[in-house]
Amino acid sequence: MKILVTGTAGFIGHHLAKALVERGDTVVGIDNINDYYDVELKYARLADAGISRHAENWYEKVQSETYPDYSFIRMNLEDRERLMDLFKTEKFDKVVNLAAQAGVRYSIENPHTYVDCNIVGFLNILEACRHNNIKHLVYASSSSVYGNNKKMPLSTSDNVDHPISLYAATKKSNELMAHTYSHLYNISTTGLRFFTVYGPWGRPDMAMFLFTDAILNDRPIKVFNGGDLYRDFTYIDDIINGIISTLITDAKKTYSIYNIGNSKPVKLTDFIEEIEIQTGEKAIKEMYPMQPGDVEKTWADVEDLKSDFNYLPKTSIDIGVERFLYWYNNYYCLS
């Protein structure tokens, strides 16, 4: 298949693009390479997939030197005309939309960025799919849509009408917009609610990266809510397997929403302890109260994804941390 993957300079998008071309698909990746976090890490991800530094240039199609069936274009989802031209030129079979402005806390300080990218950009994707006969759109939602729901594990049948961050609100909006387009235009859409993804090439603003970087550089780590937080840490390989399974299989319904997580929540203090054990270093902990927009616990009910697509997360937290540390040490030349 020929597949558009948005957000391929990002963490999940990078891994997905490589996995798809390695299984024989043709992939066009797009990303705006914004400066929400270190752009050098984004360029390094692209380089890992054979995309040269020419990716700095806007709208220039850059061919991978490693994968003949992978190319990259720097562009914004908000650029409606260019996005529509891309769809018309490339004639994609399917689309995976992972591009978004991420981060719960950042959304409190930069709300307009989230509306521009996550809502306007997603509308442009839906319109491009509508007018170009796209067989299936898979898109990233988030566990943050559950807000402070207390019933565990979190299920897609739960009410998600009370988001507690603008980021979560934009992701809930994406699900509603996808439902509308599935209903009106018979477009197959599948939303995946990601639960705390981690692993090699991960985002620097996420716990795995933040804690490791601080511990190895003798800096204190911020521990919110006294460490009494639980996250359904999900290793990147399990996430990628789940995305590909939903993408390549004929959609069960025109409109679908699934949780994609590990379904084994880990207490934050235990997660920190695992990093301490594997690095041989002790964390300097600074305790902070609960942050606005954060939730106390995430725990994914993934039975629907297991039933429909044989999804089976299998990477334990100790193995996942070990693999991240191996990448981190090599990336920063520490080993």
TrEMBL record:
Keywords: NAD
Residue span(s) of domain NAD-dependent epimerase/dehydratase: 3-261
NAD in keyword set: yes
Pfam families referenced in this protein's UniProt entry, alphabetically: Epimerase
Superkingdom of source: Bacteria
Ligase keyword on record: no
Protein name per UniProt: NAD-dependent epimerase
